[in-house]
Amino acid sequence: MPSDITAVVVAMLARMTFDFAIWSRNEPQRPILLVCEEAHRYIPNDRQAESSVGRILGRIAKEGRKYGVSLGLITQRPSDLAEGVLSQCGTIVAMRLNNERDQAFVRAAMPEGARGFLESIPALRNREAIICGEGVTIPIRVAFDDLEDARRPASSDPLFSTLWRDVGGEEQIIDRTILKWRAQGK
What we know:
Structural class: alpha+beta
Distance between the termini: 13 Å
Number of helices: 6
Strand order of the largest sheet: 3-4-5
């Protein structure tokens, strides 16, 4: 889905979810977790944060708990997130960060008692994280289970040096891609 459409869809889904939660206040509560992958695209740390998607996600971050709506923000660049939104996060799961700016941003958002763990963030291995906040009794370092290859998303980076050596079939690739592109939404 093109990025300009993605922002509109995310804004609409978030608005509908939040409005539903507000209007169902007197019903048995069912907590909702909205997970935003690449969250810095929707809640950036600049003037674009005033977009419709930025406004509704910011409102959910500030007021959502009253209505049983929470945000799960996933980003590899926490310093690109709007500061006000990150400060509303009750639990932070921080994986390896090498960029000093990102580390400082996470450090500022973490509770005082977790700051000692922050020194280990650049040294975390794959599948390791520091968790702190409301979701855990004390800050902890965790290791995630390995996910079998068949269940992993297709999100690995292409091996450009290898792929550039492959030749032939480009025209068919372009034709198939254009057909898929044109058929979207039909």
